[in-house]
TrEMBL record:
The keyword Signal applies. This is Copper resistance protein B. Residues 41-143 are annotated as: Disordered. Keywords: Signal. Transmembrane segments: none annotated. The keyword Translocase does not apply. Residues 1-28 form the signal peptide. Residues 41-60 have a biased composition (Low complexity).
Length: 368
């Protein structure tokens, strides 16, 4: 079948299109009114030069017209702001949400999204959406639940609490090319974190007698997080006359984990001395630990009665590998290198003692 396009047919088609165009605004207005009935689906009202009507009729019911300014509508039971009215869709959406138990702040935010509101109106809507004061059982903002941040409950440790420790760093037998015997090194303390009574002793026994050694009693005072100052006395043991010294020093943990001890001594008749020590722990495992240690002694003047010369008198380097059965009990094996220097070496040669020696050591490290 074919349609012949003649002038009457064209006129009829143009007239139909024109009528269809005229019918579009009424259809769009009807669709817009239907969307206003859905909660949260309000569309912004077109700007108009003439004042908005006070009310509109929808479904035979008079409804207040939407305010041109777009200010959020009040909730159910609230009075509308002066000079403004709620849109039909906003009012119906709020009524439906109230019947379903929705939070007023949520609906206020939804109505604000539907209205073309200014900055101040949107701020008011956001303030309402955040809600009022928190409930009584709400968690505190920092999750502390009222606990002070500086202390754990039940875990307070007073700085004045006193403790005690006695530790044998070395309790060993040694065997070298020239000398054999036993050696000890210990320290113990009693006090608190700031002040302690510190006792230190070291020495060696050979041929059934104490060949050399010393005993120190010191007051230790904390001056920094990892450093203490020491002040006290030292008493020498072993061959020759006993010497007494006033001791002043510092000890602590240096960077990279080195334990450092430096002490100066002043004795009678203008005698002076110093001792420098450092050790480090290399953990192969939590129980197997290698500990190198270096010690150097020096004196300000000769003391032939004790076989000591001025300057650096001796240097000792030890290397011990221990296994901690428990933290308090650890057997070890290692090597100890001893070297006498300067005039002290001359005194040793004069009485037939070795100047240097390399020794195998076996011992026990323990503390109480």
């Amino acid at each position: 079948m074919s349609i012949r396009l003649n002038r009457p047919t064209i006129r009829a088609a143009a007239l139909a299109i024109f009528l269809a165009v005229l019918a579009l605004p009424a259809t769009a207005q009807h669709q817009h009114a239907g969307m206003d009935g859905m909660p949260g689906m309000d569309m912004p009202a077109p700007a108009a030069s003439a004042p908005a009507p006070a009310s509109s009729t929808m479904g035979g019911t008079a409804m207040p017209a939407r305010a041109a300014s777009g200010v959020p509508a009040p909730m159910r039971g609230e009075a509308a702001p002066a000079g403004h009215a709620m849109s039909p869709g906003t009012q119906r959406g709020i009524h439906d949400a109230s019947s379903q138990g929705m939070h007023p702040g949520t609906m206020t935010g939804m109505s604000a999204q539907g209205d073309a509101a200014g900055p101040s109106a949107r701020a008011m809507a956001m303030g309402r959406m955040q809600g009022g004061p928190p409930p009584a059982d709400a968690r505190s903002p920092d999750y502390s639940d009222g606990v002070a941040p500086s202390h754990l409950p039940g875990m307070d440790m007073g700085e004045e609490a006193r403790f005690a420790l006695l530790q044998f760093d070395r309790l060993e037998s040694f065997a070298g090319r020239e000398e054999h015997g036993q050696r000890w090194e210990l320290h113990g303390w009693y006090g608190n974190d700031n002040d302690k009574l510190l006792v230190r002793s070291e020495g060696e026994r050979s041929a059934g007698r104490v060949a050399e050694g010393d005993l120190e009693a010191l007051w230790s005072h904390a001056v920094a997080a990892y450093w203490d100052t020491t002040l006290g006395v030292r008493h020498d043991l072993g061959d020759g006359p006993c010497r007494n010294w006033l001791a002043v020093g510092v000890q602590g943990l240096a960077p990279y984990g080195f334990d450092v001890e430096a002490t100066g001594y002043v004795g009678l008749s203008g005698r002076t001395a110093a001792r420098l020590r450092a050790d480090y722990e290399v953990l192969f495992t939590q129980r197997l630990i290698l500990q190198p240690e270096l010690e150097a002694n020096l004196y300000g003047r000769d003391d032939p009665a004790r076989g000591i010369g001025r300057g650096f008198s001796d240097v000792q380097f030890g290397l011990r590998l221990r296994y901690e059965i428990r933290r308090e009990l650890a057997p070890y094996v290692g090597m100890q290198f001893v070297r006498r220097l300067g005039r002290t070496a001359d005194f040793a040669r004069a009485i037939g003692q070795p100047v240097s020696d390399r020794q195998l050591v076996v011992g026990l490290r323990l503390w109480f």
